[in-house]
Design brief:
Strand content of chain A: 25-35%
CATH topology of the largest domain in chain A: Jelly Rolls
Oligomer: homodimer
CATH superfamily of the largest domain in chain A: Jelly Rolls
Shape of chain A: elongated
Strand order of the largest sheet of chain A: 2-3-4-10-5-8
Order of helices and strands of chain A: HHHHHEEEEEEEEEE
Number of domains of chain A: 2
Largest sheet of chain A: 6 strands, antiparallel
DNA sequence: TAATTATGTCAAAAATACCGAACATGCCGA
DNA sequence: TCGGCATGTTCGGTATTTTTGACATAATTA
């Protein structure tokens, strides 16, 4: 892994000069210069300081996988979604023909007052989602969260969870669960 | 983050002594000792060497696996998304702190004229997505599809694919890719 | 054009990390 | 109890990083 090059790319992406970043990070500009030229291998503490000026965590820095940029049916219209609704919780699964799918990608609609119930919704894997309309209440473990349009979640599915919409408007969510042992 | 303590825990977990680890890593035992006592902040290069003796990557080391999923954040607002954008293709990853995530859940925005490029975008796994605003052109294999708001896709990531927005309006997509090796 | 400001780089001094070799402790078997 | 033997710690010296304070270049302004 090319630490110097990576730092340089990130810094440029943020539109910072070596000196600006140095000031924010509390190090000197020459430190940045040398790190970027790989003429030194920074100490963890100083790299951390530098990244705080971005700001960026060490994990993010080292997970450079983000540099991406980055005969089944492929496209499904609303009419093609597979309906898995129960009561006021409407679930539309994308890719109904996909047999051994690795994940469940769904459009979920929670009508006012709807609830996935108290039952521990337990399964292996992880799930994530984004609110595209309305708001709802998410319980994970014993924490209760309130999510509104534009908010997202990501948690380990082994933790008991529950979706509830105590509000006046329907709430629409796009979600993904993996594996699709649903 | 307590680098020394973390190293110590990992080393013990692997049943290694400071000297054993030192030998495998190609450093001296005193180095390990000092790192674990936080009497120094190791350079990236030496920490990397040490971890190779485990073996463990820097990402894994800093992603603090010790944290149970219960301590992970669950909800992410737009400000918390991790930005993986390149040029006119804007990628926002949900769950940046999730170390070994099983999937990448993202909000993608394709500006007019943007394109993920001709390069075969090849990786294992599967991916799905839903258009929440605008429209775009999806190429999978040698098929070209046109998706508009409300349409979705689901395909095997081993098939070469490409995202392109030749239209006048930005296109926004919610997507999920698994595994997150992208 | 000249002065100004911003950029990145470099050399030597200061600070810090690392090595090599000792030291201290505890454990186990003779 | 003693002598290995393995453990982790400490210390002086060496190697590396970081700062300090320059220099060179390019872009901007007077």
């Amino acid at each position: 892994m090319d630490v110097g090059e990576r730092l340089k790319v990130i810094r440029k992406q943020k539109g910072l000069s070596q000196r600006e970043l140095a000031k924010r990070a509390g190090v000197t500009n020459s430190t940045i210069s040398m790190i970027e030229k790989n003429s030194v291998s920074p100490s963890v503490s100083s790299l951390k300081k530098v990244l705080q000026g971005i700001p960026m965590s060490l994990v993010e820095f080292f997970s450079d996988e983000g540099e991406t940029s980055a005969t089944q049916p492929v496209v499904y219209g609303p009419a093609d979604f597979m309906d898995l609704s129960v009561d006021d919780v409407k679930l539309k699964l994308v890719g109904k023909a996909f047999g051994r799918r690795a994940m469940a990608f769904m459009i979920e609609t929670y009508e006012p007052g709807s609830d996935t119930g108290e039952d521990p919704y337990l399964h292996d894997g992880e799930e994530a989602g984004l609110v595209i309309r309305g708001q709802f209440e998410l319980t994970v473990g014993d924490e209760i969260y309130h999510l509104k349009e534009g908010d997202a979640y990501y948690f380990d599915s082994t933790r008991p969870h529950r979706f509830r919409n105590p509000y006046d408007e329907p709430c629409q969510i796009v979600s993904a669960t993996t594996p699709a042992n649903f």
